[in-house]
Specification:
Blueprint (H helix, E strand, L loop, with lengths): L3 H7 L6 E7 L13 H11 L5 E7 L4 H11 L4 E5 L5 H14 L4 E5 L1 H5 L1 H7 L5 E3 L4 H8 L6 H4 L5 E4 L5 E3 L17 H4 L10 E2 L2 E2 L20 E2 L2 H13 L4 E4 L8 H15 L4 E6 L1 H4 L1 H4 L2 H7 L2 E9 L3 H6 L6 H14 L3 E8 L6 H17 L4 E7 L7 H4 L6 E3 L15 E3 L4 H22 L5 H14 L4 H6 L3 H11 L6 H7 L4 E5 L3 E3 L6 E5 L2 E4 L2 H9 L6 H12 L3 H17 L3 E5 L2
Parallel strand pairs: 1-2, 1-3, 3-4, 4-5, 8-11, 11-12, 12-13, 13-14, 14-15
Antiparallel strand pairs: 5-6, 6-7, 9-10, 16-17, 18-22, 19-20, 20-21
Helix pairs in contact: 2-7, 3-4, 10-11, 11-14, 14-16, 17-19, 20-22, 25-26
């Protein structure tokens, strides 16, 4: 295999800037690296104006200092930029001083939501960073690249910056005007702008900036002046969608905080997708339930599904109407259930609802209401609806972080250093301690798992097929897929077909069964008070009839169908042709339970 990165570095082309995203990852290695699309927008904007800029996507598990320093030296990088959010702040903080020591000539610039939310506080924590960019970064970044030097005196007139003065103090410049027309920004060329070959297995796009909502747990809730909601035109959105399809994508994540803010724009977008792809290219988005509810826009969800929507994420936040009002969410549980019903009726594969555990005014009663709503959602559309709980995280410069007492919250760890965002408890409420909230999170997960396990045996095959094939065809891992793939028989039935090493009964019958091998997908076992064989499937422990037990025993992947029929005939007697038809019929029924897959031998 050719080392394309080494080849690129050896080319000797200097870079005006290298932009780096370090994803904060658990200790265990994650194979998939999440693209930080905002850096690609910056790089494309600079590239379109004559500056050579590349983006590197890393994990906190990488040997970061050596790798980044080597690239800076070999490519003669002048500006080294880092995306910083609340989670990876500590990883960037850890490596900056060492990079500065190894590469003293490079100017280190930091940007992203953490700088935008708290410029001075974040720069104070990032020793080694020279400059911080807040707000829309494209024009500010370009201005930096076009300066002859990045000495403090040169930076004084550049809006949207916080920087270190000669005496070490921090200077904050005025806010830069936002980019009103997002269509002026070019579509990022993911392949050309990536330092390493671009992995197009999970392509994503964003179609707007900001959010028109003012939820108390979100930065937008403060109505900050440098954040204003803007959207790309429908034509521009379709153009970027087409670009990603051209890279080979058949599933695209639209990662806006509120993609469905404008129902009219969304309709036009869906009409464009239907005209182009007729639902063949699948996509994901996030949306608010008040926009999607049938009382406001009865046609939206059916149109979205017809346009290829396969997975939708919504913020349920709480089962308590009182808590929802405290969050300034401006949605209701009635709207939540209305959207779930509309999604079910429209044939959506996956609707996922997020709940906050341990947030505003949380108590034993509000938790009970959340548990009840989550359980009801799962039961109203088994196989489609899924839910998850995340602990409240006091993100910097949000209303709840600024005035927690208004929400009945006491912040115990304002910097969130004791755990990963949403996975640990950083606060307590007036009636619940930190350990109470931790216990509530575990109880939420336990109840969700129990309900899904209860509902799983009754899922129709059509639903099972849809989730399993969504994974194998598009790489979509829904919560119901995760539940299904834990069962040996299902994985062993779908995976060979996805790899084209196995076929189902219908395909086998079309080819002719005689020269094919039936192969069981699950181990054989026994059951209490049952004299024959049994199997464990997604429907529980299945007791097999003597005939089915024999047929599964013979389906060990060693005998052809035409060799199995005489064995059964020798035991049962009767006409050979009748036995043959009965064996085929029983294998067809076992196929419907995902217990048999067929293998071609030639």
């Amino acid at each position: 295999m050719v080392d394309t990165r080494a080849k690129t570095l050896a080319s000797g082309q200097s870079l005006a800037a290298l932009l780096v995203f370090v994803e904060s990852s658990p200790v265990l290695w994650r194979h998939f690296r999440r693209m930080q699309l905002g850096l690609f927008y910056l790089a494309q904007y600079a590239h379109d104006r004559g500056h050579r800029v590349l983006v590197d996507t890393l994990s906190s598990n990488d040997v970061l200092v050596g790798r980044i320093s080597r690239t800076v030296t070999e490519r003669n990088v002048r500006v080294l930029g880092f995306y910083v959010d609340q989670e990876n702040l500590w990883d960037v903080r850890r490596i900056l001083p060492a990079i500065k020591d190894r590469c003293p000539g490079v100017s280190i610039v930091v940007g992203g939501p953490q700088i935008t939310a708290a410029p001075v506080e974040t720069m104070d924590r990032l020793i080694g960073a020279d400059i911080g960019v807040f707000g829309d970064g494209e024009e500010t970044f370009l201005e930096l690249l076009e300066m002859k030097t990045l000495r403090p005196r040169e930076l004084e007139g550049c809006a949207g910056l916080v920087f270190r003065a000669s005496d070490g103090s921090l200077v904050t410049n005025p806010v830069r005007r936002i980019i009103e027309n997002l269509d002026t920004l070019g579509i990022p060329d993911r392949k050309k702008l990536a330092l390493e070959p671009f992995d197009s297995s999970a392509p994503a796009m964003i179609t707007g900036r900001g959010c028109p909502a003012r939820c108390a747990f979100c930065y937008e809730g403060l109505e900050a002046g440098l954040k204003n909601f803007r959207m790309h035109s429908v034509e521009r959105c379709l153009e970027e969608f087409d670009y990603l399809v051209g890279l080979g994508a058949n599933y695209i994540a639209i990662n806006d905080d509120h993609f469905a803010a404008s129902a009219g724009r969304l309709r036009q977008f869906c009409d464009g997708l239907i005209e182009r792809y007729d639902g063949a290219v699948k996509w994901f988005c996030l949306a608010r339930v008040d926009v999607l509810s049938r009382e406001r826009n009865v046609d939206l969800l059916p149109k979205m599904v017809a346009a290829g929507l396969i997975r939708l994420q919504i913020g349920a936040e709480s089962g308590s109407e009182m808590v929802l009002r405290s969050y300034n969410k401006k949605t209701t549980n009635r709207q939540l259930f209305d959207v779930a019903e509309a999604a079910r009726d429209a044939g959506l594969l996956s609707l996922h609802a997020n709940f906050i555990i341990g947030g505003a005014l949380e108590s034993a009663q509000t938790l009970h209401e959340t548990f009840e709503v989550a359980d009801s959602l799962l039961r109203m559309a088994p196989g489609m609806t899924s839910v998850s709980g995340a602990f409240f995280t006091p993100y910097t410069s949000t209303p709840m972080a600024e005035t927690p007492e208004r929400y009945g919250v006491q912040i115990l760890d304002p910097l969130a250093v004791t755990g990963r965002d949403c996975e640990h408890v950083f606060c307590r409420t007036e009636s619940l301690s930190k350990t109470d909230i931790l216990s509530a999170g575990s109880e939420f997960d336990r109840r969700v798992d129990a309900t899904m396990s209860e509902l799983l045996p009754d899922l129709p095959n059509e639903t099972i097929d849809a989730h399993m094939w969504a994974y194998y065809a598009h790489g979509i891992s829904t919560e119901w897929y995760e539940e299904l793939q834990s069962h040996e028989s299902l994985v062993n039935w779908f995976a060979p077909q996805a790899a084209h090493t196995g076929i189902d009964f219908r395909q086998a019958a079309d080819l002719g069964l005689e020269r094919l091998q039936p192969v069981r997908t699950v181990k054989l076992t026994t059951a209490p008070d049952h004299g024959g064989l049994a199997v464990r499937s997604h429907r529980g422990l299945l007791k097999l009839s003597p005939t089915d037990g024999l047929l599964l025993e013979l389906a060990a992947g060693k005998l052809l169908f035409e060799e199995i029929v005489p064995v059964v005939h020798g035991i049962s007697g009767g006409k050979l042709e009748t036995v043959r038809d009965n064996v085929a019929r029983r294998y067809e029924e076992l196929d419907k339970s995902y217990l048999i897959v067929w293998r071609e031998t030639v």
